[in-house]
Design goal:
about 500 residues, mainly alpha, 3 domains, 24 helices
Amino acid sequence: MSQSSTALAPPQQTVGPIFHWWRVAIPILITLALAALPPPTGLAHHAWLYFALFAGVIAALVTEPLPNPAVGLVGLSLTALLSPYVLFAPADLAKPGFKLTSQTINWALSGFSSTTVWLVGAAFMFALGYQKSGLGRRIALLMVRALGRSTLLVGYATTLADAVLAPFTPSNTARSAGIIFPIVNNLPALYDSKPHDPSARRFGGYIMWTTFAAGCVTSSLFMTACAPNFLAIEFIDKIVHVHITYLQWMKASLPFALPLLLALPLLAYVLYPPEVKRSTEVTAWARRELRNMGAISAREIILAVLVTGAIVLWVTGGSFVDATLTALVAIALMLVCGIVTWDDMAKNHSAWTTLMLLATLVTLADGLSRAGFVKWFAEFVAAHVGGFSPTLILVMLVTVYFFSHYFFASLTAHTTAMMPLMLAAGMGIEGLPAPTLAMALALTTGIMGVITPYATGPGLAYYNSGYLPPADFWRLGTIFGLIFLAALLTIGVPLLAMG
């Protein structure tokens, strides 16, 4: 999954003469180098060895010697085999009645019992329903037809189309690159705007950047719009014991992400203006495409009812029905009503790939706490930030978390590597509420995907479209990254701190 992130199905690596040996060598060398060093003062030796293994897994998620789910499975299996030396303290092993085998396998499979992991898998099936029924494409075309008479309004059309699909499409790659991009890619030609040509600035550059950036904002606006959001929530639950519901997420994200989303097409219009301001061709094209699709089908209507009911229960029903159960019931009804078939679901590579990856990474990150590394790291940071106010520390942690994404090519890898450490860093800070820090870090996941072409899965589709020169993409990524982070820190975080 680097979904984000994320490339949900990284290309298979070819083993043979062209195999990139460095993809394997770097994670192994990092693991061995860290393991050879003496543990820091106050940290148990087994916990340091666990961290060395964990760091090697994160490095492998970046270098990708194997597809990321395979990396997670290999890392989990290796850790389980070495559990007497890296996971459990000698005192635990010496306890009467301690059963190493059962304790190890229960830990190794714990990620697969997570309701959050299964909610992600279920939400991917919603995205499959959008694709199979044609509802996702119809929504996007309706938006373009309604708002396509001016360039600025086309920007709002693609932004709103992403926002409508986002609550039910946890792969921002599938949503932004798979559903929205193919439609948007047809629009520049209507303005005589060509890729890899000076005419790209007539319209193509503006609409490509606006649509890409909108997908990053909606990934933070909706908890269910980006799979690494669920990963962050699971870490927060396990490490600082704060449970975040769908309604709590919306209350925290709306004040800063909704204004950002509404301002985004206008910001791009000012900062990266198109040369053509108005055209009637876009609405005519969208009208023709809708005519070719025909009347709305019964399957589309049923799916619309099901997803609307699901989001209502996610927002209002948290006290009497579990969010995962809501999603599973909706999927069962999708099967009964023929929206999708079981064969469709069985072949949904993205869903099962994501489920496997999240389950293994949730377990591996939980091992940091179980081995004692998180507790030590929290105490270490608390001892070295004396003199700073809790508010300043919060801003520093969120800022570091955001800009460290320049070093990651996956939202999933970044969340797995950095979220436990940032949470641990804030745990020992007196006066810094854990729920505030946790939510601020979680809300960063989607918006930090805007900063580089490789920061999140959809980025490469728009980067390689030919309408955004590399220099422009990097410059806009920096500008909009700073805008997004400023909105979170000046609007979102203060409101979080106020409760």
